[in-house]
Amino acid sequence: MTQASPASTPSLKDRAQLVIDQLRPYIQSDGGDIELVDVSPEGNVQIRFRGACVGCPSSEMTLKMGIERNLKEKIPEIREVIPV
Predict the structure, then answer these.
(1) CA distance linking residue 21 with residue 34, whole number of Å
(2) How far is CA 40 from the centre of its chain?
(3) Long-range contacts of 34-39 (CB under 8 A, 24+ apart)
(4) Angle at 42 between CA 34 and CA 18, to 5 degrees
(5) What is the rounded end-to-end Cα distance, in angstroms, of the chain?
(6) Cβ–Cβ < 8 Å for 27, 34
């Protein structure tokens, strides 16, 4: 069995971007959008809400129950999602 070289292993940020890209159509369907800003080596993900999500009272629930939950399920190294 061969191990993948570090160059072929997607970075934590690349993996987070893939998950966010899967979630974006749901957020866009409500007139909002989301942008991945950065992912720290410790697993803290920074995102930016756009469009209708800015100032929406439901954005905190979307963040914790949708985005953060999905990221943590698919990428165990993720610790927290922080809106910036």
Answers:
(1) 9
(2) 12
(3) 34/67, 37/84, 38/13, 39/11, 39/12, 39/13, 39/78
(4) 35
(5) 42
(6) yes
Structure tokens of 38?
A: 């950065």
Amino acid at 36: L
- Give the pTM: 0.83
What is the torsional sign of CA 29, 31, 37, 43? negative
pLDDT digits (tens, 9 = 90+) for 3-21: 555 567 889 999 999 999 9
Tokens found for residue 18: 């893939």
Q: How far is CA 22 from the centre of its chain?
A: 9
